[in-house]
Design goal:
The protein is mainly alpha-helical and about 100 residues long. It has a domain of about 70 residues. The protein contains four helices and no strands.
Length: about 100
C-alpha cells in the first residue's frame, strides 16, 4: 500500500513519565522524599502508639514539595514555586532611582 499513511492511534504524551509528572516535577518530588527521609533520621518520632500519628511530622518536607508543584497562584495562574522565584528576583533586582534636583 504505497502512499497510505496510518497515523498513530494515540499521540505520545508530552514528557509525562510517571503519575502524570514531567521529569523536573518528578525530581522535585524525589528531593522532597529524600529530605523527609533525612528529617526522619534526625528528629525522633512523637510519643503516640499509632505509627501514622507518630511519624506524620516527618512528611513535612515532602508535603511542601508537592504543594509547590500542585498549587497555583490565583491571580497569575503560575505554579507557586515559579511565582516565588519571580517574586524573589523582583525583590533582589538592582534598583535605579531617578530624582530631580531642586533648583533654587
Amino acid at each position: 500500500m504505497f502512499g497510505h499513511h496510518h497515523p498513530l492511534s494515540q499521540p505520545a504524551p508530552a514528557g509525562k513519565i510517571i503519575f502524570g509528572l514531567t521529569l523536573p516535577q518528578l525530581v522535585v518530588v524525589l528531593i522532597g522524599a529524600k529530605l523527609s527521609y533525612d528529617f526522619s533520621k534526625i528528629v525522633p518520632a512523637l510519643p503516640f502508639n499509632n505509627f501514622i500519628f507518630a511519624h506524620i511530622h516527618h512528611m513535612i518536607p515532602f508535603f511542601i514539595a508537592v504543594f509547590l508543584l500542585v498549587a497555583r497562584n490565583t491571580k497569575t495562574g503560575l505554579p507557586v514555586a515559579l511565582y516565588f522565584y519571580y517574586w524573589l528576583c523582583f525583590k533582589i533586582r538592582k534598583k535605579t532611582f531617578i530624582w530631580r534636583r531642586k533648583e533654587g
